[in-house]
Amino acid sequence: MGTLIASSLIDLLDLSATTDPWKLALDFLIKQQKIDPYRVESLIAPLKASTPSKEEFLTAAAFLSLNETLKYELKGDLIALCDGVDPAIRELIFTLLGHSSHTPYKVSSPSDLLYFGLAALFQNSTEKKRTFLQKVGEINQFLDRKGNPFFGLMSDEKHFCLATLLAIFFLIFSLAKEFSNKKEFETIANHLYHRLGLLEGYFLDAIPSHLLLLSLLLERCESGEKSSYPIPFARGFSRNLALWHEQLNKIDFTCQFSGVGSSFAAASKGNVEIVAMAPQKLPLGVMENFGLFRLPPNDAGEFSDLKYEEDFLEGWIKLCQYGTDHPEPGKDWIYTEVKTKPDYLTFTFTPQKPEVDYYIVFFIKAKEAKVEGRPSLKPKCLERLRGEVGEIFFKDADEVLSLRTKEPTKIEVIPLAGGNHFWSAHFLVAFPINESLSIEIS
Question: What is the pLDDT of residues 148-191, one digit of tens each?
């Protein structure tokens, strides 16, 4: 099944140059076509005496599954240590080690979806494969028309890693391609792989060893009969997810009223992307003050404040605040209206407490930011733009995206460096809300 999947993902990296001991063991396996049992045993032994990450457990299980003798000798030790591991990872670990586990769990992240799909593959479960494909159809709401994921909607800034997320989505859509006959899945997988290939080596080095091992395991597993299950590519409004995804003439966008430290909305127009956008309190750039905190709905009665029509959505978003090291629900609410036309969309924000200094902050990928009558700004430059502006343009090649307010508004534009910070954005743009703020995106 997986020569393309496994070889292509691993071939992007120079494993011999790494200092990661699991990746060095993987490099030995690829070059020598056999496992070094002493190396693997020495890597598993410290798991008993420390507090390893859940990914280390998964890496160890993946290595053991490649060697029947090692699996037989060491799987008991590994299973005994897995009690506190997330259910999605625990089921995949048990499946890899040939140990039955059927604990139901909710797929709540892209990595959970990947682990669920791999468990379906290794268990050869037709029912789970169908569920996986249905979930992949839903995840399309977080992609633009070219297949680029809106990462700001799925990850807070602190835990964002571009190469890792691209690899996860690449494997998800590669699995979906193997489970079904939909050409769209193969197209998206190829596009994501192309994006991975454009990254510099030090970004690719961040791809964790468990993803590389899981991709290698796909070579050894037959995908079975392809499903004819209908897979709807979701668009429009989903009250179950409190999310709206739409494609206009040139603009793709998604906005969500639930999230934990994540963005409220994202959009793309050609190569120009709003990778994240949400309310924030000062100071700008301190991401603990950015984003929303409203848990996804558990029943149909929740999010009853959301009002949706074909080209209109409005409701309350709740801001997050950080505890010691994780997002927590804040006390502030902002009423938000989203309207669409064929060539543009408009966001209107009205805070519950207008006396508080709220900003709407955009993180944008583009090669240039331009205000008429002023010098243009480039990514990584040290200059900033402050002042009253009615419209600002963001350019990449022949594509231009503009942000426009009804009246000139005092804004701030800060160039960024891209990479693994701020969802790879090149510009931070902040608009004060005051009593109310409307922004048109075209």
Answer: 888 888 888 888 888 888 889 999 988 888 888 778 888 888 88
Please enumerate in sequence order all residues whose Cβ is within 8 A of that of 45, keeping only pairs 6 or more positions apart, or say none: none
Measured distance CA(58)–CA(112) in Å, rounded: 13
pLDDT tens by residue, 301-325? 567 778 888 888 988 888 876 655 6
CA distance 66 to 297: 40
CB atoms within 10 A of CB 175: 28
* b/e code 414-433 from CB counts within 10 Å (16+ = b): bbbebebebbbbbbbbbbeb
- In angstroms, the CA 422 to CA 91 distance is 33
DSSP 14-38: -GGG---HHHHHHHHHHHHSS--HH
Q: Rounded to whole angstroms, how far apart are CA atoms 332 and 354?
A: 10
Question: What is the C-alpha to C-alpha distance for residues 3 and 10, in angstroms, rounded to an integer?
Answer: 11
Cβ atoms of 365 and 426 within 8 Å: the answer is: yes
Amino acid letter, residue 1: M
- Alpha-carbon distance of 440 to 12, in angstroms, equals 40
- Backbone dihedral angles phi then psi of residue 9, each to the nearest 5 degrees: -70, -45
- Our measurement of the distance from residue 330's CA atom to the centroid of its chain's CA atoms, rounded to an integer in Å, reads 23
Backbone angles phi, psi at 193, to 5 degrees: -65, -40
Backbone angles phi, psi at 197, to 5 degrees: -65, -20
How far, in Å, CA of 274 to CA of 120, rounded? 34
Residues 367 and 426: their CA atoms lie apart, in Å, by 8
- Residue 294, beta-bridge partner list: 259
Q: How far apart, in Å, do the first and last CA atoms of the chain sit?
A: 43
Distance CA 389, CA 140 (A): 35
Residues of the chain with pLDDT under 50: 1-6, 231
Q: Give the C-alpha distances (Å, rounded to integers) separating 363 from 246, 330, 371, 381.
A: 20, 22, 17, 16
Give the DSSP letter of residue 142: G
DSSP state of 45: G
